[in-house]
Each structure stands twice: as structure tokens, then as C-alpha cells.
Design brief:
8 helices; binds heme C; copper; iron; Immunoglobulin-like; five-stranded mixed beta sheet; binds copper (II) ion; 37% helix; EC 7.1.1.9; 351 residues; elongated
Length: 351
């Protein structure tokens, strides 16, 4: 038991380090106006709390020392019955502190609730699925999965929905969380002044693989965004009818096994299916979290992470709705050409 107590501070440190991990999953490193606003509210309330603790502790210690019973001193202190001045002071100070806390909170709440789109803002409908994210750019006629491309310095308004259970949309560096509730549309806005990749997460316990329901926000300059949007809305013929022979064979495997659930270039997919794959080869990671170069084994042989995912998706994300494709479904040759085809799914040509 004693050892257990000793280990306690270390387990907190470990927990903290685990949370810091590789990605910027911290609200304490704000990268945009919304996150900065929320960060300053956190700091303000923290400062007020520290002030209260310091003042109360100081008075406590003072009283403890000053009014201690001293040896030989056995007179009874003067009995008092209330003190109007003190009552007023300790009622007024908390009221003032609450006002200092409330005024910026209420003002920022109104600013954060301004989710009416104007001609310069970009509206994106975000649907949470077990265990992946769908992003629909309604004005641009684009649907994307997992990687959320946004232009920098633009007001992005998210309309949050869910297709199955309650999820929660969170990009710690850009904004606080907001729930995706089936049948209800919640809204949220962000702005990203800097280009970069921001980590996103589902923060509502939504099933077995809830903790793996990650996504990336990719903020690019408006020109690159334009090029991306163009590529997504009108993908090249190559994605549908590859000129390369092997990729063309892969496309056939794809049409036979995958197209019913996954769209490419606006073709295929279904509402209960999986993420749009038009720009799949440009994903930062597979299925939200699997590194492309992760080592994997299937059937005693070393295979790429992507093949591992296609062969045994349950090994990675328990409870997800992607079926497994074993050797009987897709043999090794077919798999090789399928992987070749999946690698052609790109819409930005400079990468
Ligand atoms: C029954 C529908 C269904 C079929 C058929 C299907 N998938 Fe999926 N797929 C899914 C779902 C659902 C996910 C999301 C899983 C998750 O992350 O929870 C997914 C995820 C994926 C991903 C990861 C996507 C990303 O954004 O990172 C890839 C790649 C993929 N599927 C490829 C394929 C290929 C290739 C085939 C055909 C051999 C196929 N899928 C067949 C439903 C399906
Ligand atoms: Cu979720």
C-alpha cells in the first residue's frame, strides 16, 4: 500500500506525458481567435482562483499565529456578535470577482455563438460516424473523409450532425468541443491564421473504438485550398479510368469490393458506408490514426499498414464497420493491384 502511494505522483506525470504525446492535443497552445479567446478565459479564471486561495490562506495563517493561546494567558476573549463591516466585505468581494469572471465570459459566449454564414465564410457539414468523420462542403459540392482541408484566415462554420450515436467534435488548438447529436444541428466556428496540421478527436464515448476516432485539420493557404476543392469537385479521369495497367486492374477489384461503400470522384458510396476516398493517398494517416509505414503482419507475412487494415480492420479499430478482406476475397495479385490503384487517389499534384 505504501509503495502504491509513492507511485501516485509518478503515475500522474506519466498520465500527463501520455496526454502530451506526439500531437498538439492541447487547449493550452491556442492557434486561432476562438481558441485564444477560450484560453484567455481559462487563464482569467485560474488567476482569480489563485488570488482567492492566496488571500484565504494568508488570512488563515495570520489568524492561526496571531490568536493562538499563549502559555499563561487564560483570559476569555471578548465575545462579539457579528460584524457588519466584515459581512459587507466578504459578500462584496466574491460578487466583484464573479462579475470580473462573468463579463468577458458572457461577451465571448455571444461572439462564439455568431454562426450565421456571410459571403466570406465557408460552411462545412460535419457528420460523426462510428468511428470516422465526414465533411461536406455544401456550397462546393464536395464530400471528404477524415482529412478536413480548410483555407487559412477564413471563417469556417461547422454544422455538426451524427448518423448513429452522439459524438463530439474537438480540435483543441483551434476551438473548444461541441457535440454531434443525431437529429440536432449544433454549430461552431473557427479560424486558423497559420497553415499547418491540427489534430482532431471525438470526445464523446461513442463505442468500442471511440478513442481512435481521430481526424486531421489541414489548414492551407487559400490558393492551395482552391486547387484542392477543384480537384475534389472535378477529379481527373485517371481516378476512375486509370491509364496504368496495374492500377486499372486495381480499379476493377475496387469496383467489385469497395465501391458500394466508398465513393471516389462522386461515384459510389452509400450513407451507411465508409469515408470518401477521392484523395485517400494524400491522407496523413490511415483510418484516422495508423501510420503509413507501421509494420504489420498478416497470415505470417510482413505486409504494409494499408494492406493490414484492408485484411483485418477489426485488429486496428475494434467494432468498426469495415468488412475484412481475407485471401479468399482478394488474393495476393489482386491486392497488389488494388494497393497500386489506391495510391493514385490524389487531387493535389505537387505532393
Ligand atoms: C460495408 C462497407 C464497406 C466496404 C464494402 C468497404 N469498406 Fe472500407 N471502410 C468502411 C468503413 C465504415 C470505414 C471507416 C472505418 C473506421 O474508421 O471506423 C472504412 C475505412 C476504409 C479506409 C480508411 C479510410 C481513411 O479515410 O483513412 C480505407 C482505405 C478503406 N476503407 C478501403 C476499402 C477498400 C479498398 C475496400 C474494398 C476492398 C473497402 N474499404 C470496402 C466501410 C466499407
Ligand atoms: Cu465518436
Amino acid at each position: 500500500m505504501k509503495n502504491l502511494w509513492r507511485a501516485l505522483p509518478f503515475s500522474f506525470i506519466l498520465l500527463f506525458l501520455a496526454g502530451c504525446g506526439k500531437q498538439n492535443l492541447s487547449a493550452l497552445d491556442p492557434r486561432g481567435p476562438v481558441a485564444e479567446m477560450q484560453y484567455s478565459l481559462i487563464i482569467l479564471s485560474l488567476l482569480i482562483m489563485i488570488f482567492v486561495i492566496v488571500v484565504v490562506a494568508a488570512i488563515y495563517i495570520y489568524v492561526l499565529v496571531r490568536f493562538r493561546e499563549k502559555p499563561g494567558d487564560n483570559h476569555i476573549p471578548k465575545q462579539v456578535e457579528g460584524n457588519k463591516n466584515l459581512e459587507i466585505i466578504w459578500t462584496a468581494i466574491p460578487i466583484v470577482l464573479l462579475l470580473i469572471l462573468a463579463i468577458p465570459n458572457v461577451m465571448d459566449t455571444f461572439t462564439l455563438a455568431e454562426t450565421e454564414p456571410d459571403e466570406d465564410s465557408l460552411v462545412i457539414e460535419v457528420t460523426g460516424h462510428q468511428f470516422w468523420w465526414e465533411f461536406e462542403y455544401t456550397d462546393l459540392g464536395i464530400t471528404a473523409g477524415q482529412d478536413l482541408y480548410i483555407p487559412t484566415d477564413t471563417r469556417i462554420i461547422f454544422d455538426l450532425e451524427a448518423s448513429d450515436v452522439i459524438h463530439s467534435f474537438w480540435i483543441p488548438a483551434l476551438a473548444g468541443k461541441q457535440d454531434n447529436v443525431p437529429g440536432i444541428t449544433n454549430s461552431l466556428w473557427i479560424e486558423a491564421p497559420e497553415e499547418g496540421v491540427y489534430q482532431g478527436k471525438c470526445t464523446e464515448l461513442c463505442g468500442e473504438s471511440h478513442w481512435l476516432m481521430d481526424f486531421k485539420v489541414i489548414a492551407v493557404d487559400p490558393d492551395t485550398f482552391e486547387a484542392w476543392a477543384q480537384g475534389m469537385a472535378e477529379p481527373s479521369e485517371e481516378l476512375i479510368e486509370p491509364a496504368d495497367e496495374v492500377a486499372a486492374e486495381g480499379r476493377e477489384v475496387y469496383e467489385a469490393n469497395c465501391l458500394a461503400c466508398h465513393a471516389v470522384g462522386g461515384e459510389g458510396g452509400n450513407p451507411q458506408g465508409g469515408p470518401d476516398l477521392t484523395n485517400f493517398a494524400e491522407r496523413e494517416v490511415i483510418a484516422g490514426f495508423i501510420e503509413w509505414d507501421a509494420d504489420t503482419e498478416y497470415d505470417g507475412e510482413e505486409v504494409s499498414a494499408l494492406e493490414g487494415w484492408l485484411r483485418e480492420p477489426q485488429e486496428y479499430k475494434p467494432g468498426n464497420y469495415m468488412p475484412a478482406f481475407g485471401h479468399e476475397a482478394i488474393d495476393e495479385d489482386e491486392m497488389a493491384s488494388l494497393l497500386e490503384y489506391l495510391d493514385t487517389l490524389r487531387v493535389l499534384d505537387d505532393e
